[in-house]
Amino acid sequence: MITQPDKESVNNLEIRLREKKKEGKKLLVCYITGGLNSHWLDTLHAVADAGADAIEIGIPFSDPVMDGPVIQKASMEALKNGATPFSILTQLSKTDAGVPLAVMTYYNLVYRMGEERFAEQLLKSGVTGAILPDLPLDEADNWIKVGESSGLATVLLAAPTTRDQRLLDIVAKSRGFVYAVGLLGVTGEREELSESATVLASRLKSHTDKPVLVGVGISNPAQAKAVCQTADGVVVGSALVRRILESENLLAITEFVKGLRESLDNS
Amino acid sequence: MTTDSDYLDTAPRKSQWMQSHLKEGKFGDFGGQFIPESLIPACNDLEKAFYDAMADDAFKAELDHLLHTYAGRPTPLTFCANLSEQLGIRLFLKREDLTHTGSHKINNVLGQALLAKRMGKNRVIAETGAGQHGVAAATAAALLGLECVVFMGNVDVGRQALNVFRMKLLGAKVVPVYSGSATLKDAVNEALRDWVATVETTHYCIGSAMGPHPYPLIVRQLQRIIGDEAREQYRENTGDDPDIVVACVGGGSNAIGTFAGFVDTKSQLVGVEAAGGAAMRNGIPGVVHGMRSRFLQDEYGQIMEAESISAGLDYPGIGPEHAYLGDIGRARYESVSDEEVLDAFRVLSKTEGIIPALEPAHALAYILRAVKNKEIVEGQTVLMTLSGRGDKDVSQVMDILDI
Question: Domain A25-261 classified CATH 3.40.190.10?
Answer without folding.
Answer: no
